[in-house]
Amino acid sequence: MIGKLGSFENPSADLSEPLDLYLHGYVSSRIMNVARKAAQGEEEGTTPLKVCVCATKVDGLVLSLTPNSHSMNYRSSVIFGTVELVMDLDEKLYAMKLITDGVLPNRYDDTRVPPDSAEMQSTQILKVTIDHASAKIRTGQPGDYEKDMKRDDLREKTWTGVIPVYQAFGEPQAASYNRVKDVPDYITNYVKEHGEAEKEYALTCIDKEAAGKS
Q1: pLDDT at site 41
Q2: Cβ atoms of 94 and 11 closer than 8 Å
Q3: Residue 149: inside a domain, yes or no?
Q4: How far is the C-alpha of 77 from the C-alpha of 98, rounded, in Å?
Q5: Of 84, 76, 43, 45, which Cα lies nearest the Cα of 58?
Q6: How many C-alpha atoms does 205 have within 13 Å on its Cβ side?
Q7: Residue ranges in the chain assigned as alpha helix (H)
Q8: Closest CA to 136 of 76, 92, 88
Q9: pTM (2 d.p.)
Q10: Which InterPro entries does the UniProt entry name for this protein (predicted)?
Q11: CA within 20 to 30 Å of 5's CA: 52, 57, 138, 152, which one?
C-alpha cells in the first residue's frame, strides 16, 4: 500500500512531532473491509483494530568472504498503531494530496482536482494512530571472521565489497495523448534530484568501517 506520515490537525508538523500514517487503497480491498467491520464493531463495544506496518529499503548488497557473513545495507521500520477509516471529507482530501505529493512532489495540484464523487467513493483512506515504532539501520562494509582474514588464498580469490543499491528514475516518456510540449520543471527536477540523493546516500553508507568478527 501507498502511505505517508502527516498530521491533519497540524499540517506543518515534522518528524519531531506526533504524526499519523495515512494509507491509500481501493474501497473494497480486504484491509478496507476489515477496517470497516472493526469500526462497526467498535460501535458495539469491541476493541479498536490494531495493525502493524513494516517498510524496508535496501541500500547495498554487502559481499564478504563467506556466505554466512553476507549482508545488506538497509533502512527498516515497524509501526504499531490503531487504525480507523477516514470519513471526514476535508481530512480525506488532505490525505489524498499528502500521499500523491509524497510520491511526486507538487503533482496533486497539477492535475484535475478535487476528485469527483465517484473517485471519492471508490477510494478509501486509513489513518493509523501510532502507538509505538522502531527502526533498524545497517551501514558499512563487510565484516569477516578473523580466521578468514588470515587466509591470503581466500582473500586473493574472493571479491569483497558493497554493491550500492539506489532508486533512479528514467527519462520521462510522454503519453500518446499528451499535449504539453515540455515536461514540467517539478518533474524533471525531482527525477534528477531524487536520483542524486539516493545514490549519494547509498555510497555514503559504504564509508563506515565494519568491525571484524572473531
Answers
A1: 72
A2: yes
A3: yes
A4: 20
A5: 76
A6: 26
A7: 30-43, 89-103, 117-122, 146-149, 152-157, 185-207
A8: 76
A9: 0.88
A10: Pyridox_Oxase-rel, Split_barrel_FMN-bd
A11: 138
Residue 214 lies in a domain: no
Residue 156: inside a domain: yes
Q: Which residue has the cell 465517484?
A: 118
Task: Provide the 10 A C-beta neighbour count for residue 42.
Answer: 13
User: The domain that contains 176 carries what CATH number?
Assistant: 2.30.110.10
Q: Using one digit for the tens of pLDDT, what is the confidence trace for 3-60?
A: 999 999 999 999 899 999 999 999 989 989 998 888 877 656 567 899 999 999 999 9
Whole-angstrom distance, CA of residue 201 vs CA of residue 121: 40
Cell of 212: 571484524
User: Whose grid coordinates read 470519513?
Assistant: 87
Rounded to whole angstroms, the Cα distance separating 69 from 77 reads 23
* pLDDT of 209 higher than 80: no
CA–CA gap between residue 82 and residue 174 (Å, rounded): 41
In whole angstroms, give the CA distance from residue 153 to residue 83: 56
d(CA 179, CA 208): 48
Give the model's pLDDT for residue 128. Answer: 97
Using pLDDT thresholds of 50, 70 and 90, give the confidence band for residue 61. very high
Note down the domain range covering 10: 2-207
Q: What does the pLDDT look like over 139-175, one tens digit per residue?
A: 999 999 999 999 999 999 999 999 999 999 999 999 9
Number of domains the chain contains: 1
DSSP summary character for residue 47:
P
